[in-house]
User: Fold Coiled-coil domain-containing protein 43 from Rotaria sordida.
Amino acid sequence: MAEALSSSFDQWIRSLLNELQSNDADMSDFVQYLMGIVTSDSETDEEKKVAIAELLADLDLKHDHNIDNLSQQILDRWYQLQNTNDHNSNSNRNHIVINKDDDAINNALINAMNQMESTIKQQKQNNDHNSNKFHDDIALKKHKSQHDHNIDNLSQQILDRWYQLQNTNDHNSNSNRNHTGINKDDDAINNALINAMNQMESTIKQQKQNNDHNSNKFHDDIALKKHKSQVLAKYSEISDEEIDYGIEHETNDNDLFQNTNAQVIEDREKKTRELQHETHKKQQEKNKIDANSQKQKDDERKKKAQQRAQKQERRR
Assistant:
């Protein structure tokens, strides 16, 4: 009879676990452990219930079940089968009733599980819908906030631009007058420098031409004198040494004259370069001062424009 009881419970528990478990794992070891718990005489019902719950917790069930309730149902089922076995006199009738009870319990348990699964799915769908709606609301609020922020920035830019143009217009006449005066000073300096350079260049060219002309003329005179001396030497008592001495003396004098003129030209060119360098340096300093002055004016205009914008913002 004990074997029949164990077999009946074994079949029932296997059928139940196959319905609840999410995989097709072999349940033989689990059923054997479970039989050892329910048939133990050394443990109380509460201890058996705790031991069954620990075994169920290790299984991969389809849904989140109440392990304690499921443990109690298994223990109750064991006692029910045990009581049925004790009343063997009405075995046939009781067996039919037990089978009906088994089917009713199994069907009720399966229906409860299916209903729970359907409820969980519906709840998940509702949560997903609410989550999507929540994110859509956040995105819409964020877009609206960015749009309002862009409008505020655009309004501020328009207002700043108006004050900037207004400030530029207030200083336009002074700026134009100052700029015109600076340009006139620059033109005067440049024109004076160009005229001085042209005049000096013309003087140097003229001096060089005169020197070349005098040098050529001097050499022509020497050649002529030498020719005359040679002719006269044929008809007079003038020695060749005296003729050569006279020619050499005149040549040395001409070289000294040429060196003196070259030194004068070099000095003039040096002074010209120094004048150009000095003028260029002064022009750079003047340009730097003008640029700093203009930058300071621009900074002052920007600062005033910002102050006006801040005042206007506070008024709003």
Remarks:
- The radius of gyration is 61 Å.
- Residues 91-170 form the longest helix (80 residues).
- DSSP finds seven helices and no strands in the chain.
